Amino acid sequence: MTDLISNARALIADDAPTVRQSLRMTLAQVGITRVDTASSIGETRRRMRNAEYDVILCDYDFGEGMNGQELLEEIRRSGELPLSAVWFMITAEASYEKVVAVAEVGPDDYLIKPFSGSQLIDRLNVAWKKKKALQIIYDCISNDDMQGAIEAARALLAKAEVPYKSDLLRLLSTLLLETNQLEDARILFEEILASRLVPWAKLGLAKVYNKQGNKTKADELLQSSIVQHSQYVDAYEELANMYMNDGRLEEAMVIFDKCLAITPNNINRLQKAGNLANMLGDSSKAKLLLSRAVNCGGNSSALSANTILQLAIAAKIEDSLGDAEKYLRMVQERVRKEDTHQNRISAQLASAIFSGKTEDLSKIESAMVEDDFTMELAISFIMTAHLICPPTNEHESPNISSPPYRWLSILAKRFVTTKNMSGILESTANQRPTWRQFIQQTGHEITEINNNGVQLMLKLRFDEATALLVNEAQTTRNSRLTLSAAHACVKFLKTGTSPTDTRPALLKTASELISRLHGNIEESVYLNLRNDLDELLSSKVTPTATQ
User: Fold this and answer.
1) Per the domain annotation, does 332 fall within a domain?
2) Is residue 269 within 8 Å of residue 263, measured between CB atoms?
3) How many domains does the chain have?
């Protein structure tokens, strides 16, 4: 354990001073003297944000609020906990064994109180050796060299004797999934499941099928996982996210409710569920969930300004004006701590609610077609506009050249990609029937443009399809139109009939359109388009007039 003794820096997180002192003394016995302590979840976050630790000994139960497992999930996913760090959970609850058995993000080990100092050191030594054995993979990941990490994992698995085989298989399959090597990931997950039933492999396989567009198979696997492991919160969350993306909002809410019954203080899930409640028009439930997210979130980087804004809007709708003002101020504070583009937009919306002036919303208009303007921000914008724009009536004639209809037009053209997505925006505008009808009609117009472009492609009139769809896609940034425009460009290029002098520009346009689709469409569709473009760029495709 020499390596650990000479280099380790440790953090002990426990709300009991006697436990902190006891653990510090145990570590000192083996020479680990660089030790910091934290007595709360918030202090633990601050410590980890300001220093790098090799070993973290964290209590599971901090009393009310988040527990150690929820904190571990949060900081592992935020990237604040290096993969090379050893995390031990310390708990007095034997039931934690059931929690960790199906935890997608689990500790490196856990100890149930009471335990001896020698037990801690022995288990710490085992965990440290494993981390060192896998260090080459962790280093590649930290340097964003995912392919290098994959090759390193495969090299270790190819050895005659393979220590930590289960950990290597999990790392490799996850890396394949994250880098969208979906067929390789599917085969590996299935091989793992053929030898033994492990929850994480089943969830991974479901994610593969979801990315490949096989929603039915993904749904079946996730439902099966939940039946087999009723505490498997990550399977619940994946299912809820899938339903959300498909516009099945009520079903997603049911799943989130079940998920939060198991982990009531997970910040990310509270934010998603609270925002979803706002979409469904349940401001009372939204306020309850989002206030819990804010209370648990505190100084967490996982807490977004938009979540606090949504809470302020819910409080405003509930006529809790004092709370609304408090949360609006918190939005501004969040931006000062984390000055991101999305947080700044949330702050501008908060300022508009403060002022009550519709002209303040005009400052956000230009950002609505930017790539990082999300659906969640669009929903917050519509809800903000509802609060401050003058009342409308059912006989009102929408004027697309003036607010609020100009804004609604931009948002509907940007985000209505399916009937379900239209339904989400319509639901957000539910208290304004004229707005709801306008969003629906705008969605129909987008669908008609897309259908016209598809019909032109079916008739092999790719030049006309490209001319129609590219302009609309670039103007609206609608991912459905962008996908059709990308297909039109690729097909037009493949025919070889595009003018030679415009071909480089068309290749560049196709590349920009396809890049914009990344993360907004099914991964398999994106990869097929990218492969087609790469073949065109490398001149491997021989143009034919019939493609």
Assistant:
1) no
2) yes
3) 3
Radius of gyration (C-alpha) of the chain in whole angstroms: 26
3-state secondary structure 106-131: CCCEEEECCCCHHHHHHHHHHHHHHH
End-to-end CA distance of the chain: 64
Residue 413, amino acid? K
Strands (E) in 60-163, as ranges, are 86-91, 109-112
Phi, psi for residue 212 in degrees, rounded to 5: -80, -5
pLDDT digits (tens, 9 = 90+) for 172-212: 999 999 998 999 999 999 999 999 888 999 999 999 999 98
CA dihedral 242, 243, 246, 250 (to 10 degrees): -160
- Distance of alpha carbon 425 from alpha carbon 440, whole angstroms: 9
Residue 364 contacts residue 358 (beta carbons within 8 Å): no
At a CB cut-off of 8 Å and minimum separation 6, what does 34 contact? 8, 9, 10
> In angstroms, rounded to a whole number, what is the distance separating the alpha carbons of residues 207 and 185?
10
CA 310 vs. chain centroid, Å, equals 18
Which CATH number do you get for residue 155?
Answer: 1.25.40.10
Amino acid at position 168, single letter: L
Quick check: is 283 in a domain? no
**The two structure tokens encoding residue 417:** 């990609």
**Long-range contacts (CB closer than 8 Å, 24 or more residues apart) made by 314-317:** 314/274, 314/278, 314/283, 314/284, 314/286, 314/287, 314/290, 315/287, 316/353, 316/387, 317/283, 317/387
Range of the domain at 202: 144-254
The whole-model pTM stands at: 0.85
